[in-house]
Automatic annotation (TrEMBL):
This is Glycosyl transferase. It comes from Cryobacterium zongtaii. Residues 7-106 form the Glycosyltransferase 2-like domain. SUPFAM superfamilies: Nucleotide-diphospho-sugar transferases. It holds the Pfam family Glycos_transf_2. PANTHER family: GALACTOFURANOSYLTRANSFERASE GLFT2 (PTHR43179:SF12), RHAMNOSYLTRANSFERASE WBBL (PTHR43179). Signal peptide: none annotated.
Amino acid sequence: MPVTIGVVVLTQGRRPDDLERGIRSLLAQEDVQLDIICVGNGWQPTGLPSGVAALALPENLGIPAGRNRGVEHVGGDYLFFLDDDASLPDPRFLIDAVGVLRADPSIGLLQPQVVDPAGLTAPRRWIPRIRKGDAAHSSAVFSVWEGAVLLPRPDFDATGGWAEPFFYAHEGIELAWRVWDQGLRTWYAGNLVANHPVILPTRHADFYRLNARNRVWIARRNLPLPLIPLYVGSWTAIQVLRGARNPAALKAWFRGWWEGWVTDPGERRPLATRTIWRMTRAGRPPVI
């Protein structure tokens, strides 16, 4: 039976060259059958090659909601999400990634190593673990860089999808946690590579505010009540240390922190006790 993958490419139409490169890299994939949709977040996709469908959203719904809207329009046993500035340098990337999932059914979400196509040094944040180590080393992880991720479709559906209220930032943490909550693992595949240019995340005007608000929302949506202050407290301490030399950024961060407590985070699905124990045994209890 052919390997069938539904692919969602999210874009606002602001990077046409990057978008073309990413779609071209998808169409070059070997030994897989793809159902590709390009979701225009507040934009009408145009000039797409044959075999790529378009979905225009009338306004920018945010990254998580935009991805979720695309899922509704594709079929396949697996789902792959690709940002419009990411691409796949190896035409066998997807079949090899599916091979990882098939070889180990305990893996419910896979993120590859991320490499800048121009050869710039990749930021350490692209390796989603506390002990970064060698970028080529594979391991279980508890968050993902969201720009190129693969899941079995039933596992994605069971998570409830991307966290739409977040709009931007940290939706990869919640998705990873909810995969773990199914008795599965999230996997960083250092032997597989996706390309993405090195870009500062602080280019987004609301970076610090949404970073803090969503950090609080992650806790309120996903943690048992006793763990909420521990998780938020640890990340507050980390941010204070990081932001000591940037008072303006720290002020924006604390505005988002307060917003996270006083606004509705949406659906609450606390992690099971067994999940917290599994995550702790695997090296990262959900308090940091």
